[in-house]
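Standup, Tuesday
Yesterday: got the pipeline producing structure tokens again.
Today: sanity-check two examples.
Blockers: none.

Example 1:
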Amino acid sequence: MRQTIFVCAPVAGNVEKNLEGIRDYCKKLVKQGDHPVAPVLMCIQFLDENKPHGREYGIRIGRELMKCCTHMHVLGNKVTKGMARDIQDASRLKVNIEFMEYTDDLQTTQN
């Protein structure tokens, strides 16, 4: 059964590498037949996250898109403040939250 999966991952730090990892993970989900939702990949195209209005607007877009999701995959070994907020929102929305671990070659395993 196809799942609509909200991808929750760190972006700050090595932004380009992290975005590439999110894109690659989304590709993996598509190959599995699932529907990835990664608002950061869309919002970064037209919002300036360095400006408070841009960041907050992106968060609101993410929350709205999360309402369409059945699952959330949390990537990485560290939960940032923004990720923690997304996880809280998913919990309130009764979205199934799964913590995933991935290496540089983006092999994933469930925790």
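Example 2:
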Amino acid sequence: MLPIVHDAAQKQVLLAVSPVLKPRSLQGQFRLVALDKDHTLLEGTTWYQNYFWPQMYWREWSDTIVHRIHMRVLEHVKAQAERQAIQKVTH
């Protein structure tokens, strides 16, 4: 059980060090979906448990953070794939 904290500075420290208060990833996947002969859609999905309370308030924040992480990973995968495609064409 977590202690009841009334001081804002103590709350920040508690949030920074407590693994209980961090979202826990349960499962993740990437899917490739063929759109046509030259285009593929890459989808990323993560299932996670949010331990922040109240969950209705924190869900939007945690969903936004997970979405940004997905976009960063997907943009990296896209750049790598396009770089490899260009190298194949030019060599």
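Quick observation on example 2: The longest helix spans residues 55-90. Strands lie at 24-36, 39-49.
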